[in-house]
């Protein structure tokens, strides 16, 4: 199934408290309970953005998750390839 990176602009996200992290995570999981074909893998938090990694049948499902949860989805990009240190063949 395709993997997507979602860029979300969320001012102040890098300063969220543990309670705020739990609250936003719980909301996402609540939406995902009704969307078993979509899987949230992880999110990277920087100052004013989140970069979330999702697996879903298509981009529309990712956007639907954002809509239902009230989350921004500024840009949704399908991952075309994953490279890592082992990609060099060494």
Question: How would you sum up this structure, described in words?
Answer:
The chain is an alpha+beta fold and 90 residues long. It has one domain (3-82): ORF SCO4226, nickel-binding ferredoxin-like monomer (Alpha-Beta Plaits), CATH 3.30.70. It is 30% helix and 28% strand. The protein has 2 helices and 4 strands, in the order βαββαβ. The protein has helices spanning 18-33, 59-69, and strands at residues 3-9, 39-45, 49-55, 75-78. Strands 2-3-1-4 form a 4-stranded antiparallel beta sheet, covered by helices on one side. Strand 2 (39-45) and strand 3 form a beta hairpin. Helix 1 packs across helix 2 (59-69). The protein starts with a strand and ends in a 12-residue tail after the last strand. The mean pLDDT is 96.
Describe the secondary-structure layout:
Layout: E1 3-9, H1 18-33, E2 39-45, E3 49-55, H2 59-69, E4 75-78
Antiparallel strand pairs: 1-3, 1-4, 2-3
């Amino acid at each position: 199934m395709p993997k997507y990176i979602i860029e979300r602009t969320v001012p102040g996200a890098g300063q969220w408290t543990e309670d705020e992290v739990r609250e936003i995570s719980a909301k996402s999981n609540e939406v995902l309970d009704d969307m078993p074909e979509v899987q949230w893998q992880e999110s990277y938090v920087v100052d004013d953005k989140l970069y979330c990694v999702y697996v879903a049948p298509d981009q529309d499902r990712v956007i639907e998750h954002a809509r239902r949860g009230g989350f921004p989805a500024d840009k949704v990009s399908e991952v075309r390839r994953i490279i890592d240190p082992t990609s060099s063949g060494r």
